[in-house]
Specification:
about 140 residues, alpha+beta, Nuclear Transport Factor 2, Chain: A, seven-stranded mixed beta sheet, 4 helices, 7 strands, globular
Length: about 140
């Protein structure tokens, strides 16, 4: 007799968590925008706060790196980055406290005294803990 009641409870109960609220998505996009600005501005202290200590960073060559290498790559002395334009931006909320923001862009600037241009697609996975967003996983794919 208990089985039918249990089955009824399972059918009546929601099988998945509620969709993330629009404000969660807006907060994530705002954080992603400020994260991009901190990189281009070479703002080391901001990047220290915005990047999780256990960051997994897969660079354009497929090499796995961490927080230290990611921040060093954006804050190297003498490097300069031009403003970027994001194309085909994607935002995928994984829940109220996690999401992926990606886009295609061309980064231009000067590194080691030489001008460069790098065309790539990136996916930044962010998680929110204690009310603060941080980059937890970054994947970069070079494009022709």
């Amino acid at each position: 007799m208990r089985f039918p009641i249990l089955a009824l409870l399972l059918v009546a109960a929601p099988l998945s968590a509620a969709a993330p609220a629009a404000e969660d998505s807006a907060a994530l996009v705002a954080f992603a925008d400020s994260f991009d600005r901190a990189q281009l501005a070479k703002d080391g202290p901001a990047l220290e706060r915005m990047v999780a200590d256990d960051l997994v960073f897969i660079d354009g060559s497929g090499k796995r790196q961490g927080k230290k290498e990611f921040i060093e790559g954006w804050t190297a002395p003498g490097d300069r980055f031009d403003p970027i334009v994001l194309h085909d931006r994607t935002v995928v909320m994984l829940g109220p406290d996690a999401g992926v923001v990606g886009a295609e862009t061309t980064l231009r600037g000067v590194s080691g005294g030489d001008a460069f241009a790098s065309h790539f697609r990136f996916s930044d996975t962010f998680r929110r803990s204690g009310g603060q967003w941080q980059a937890a996983y970054i994947q970069v794919t070079r494009l022709p």
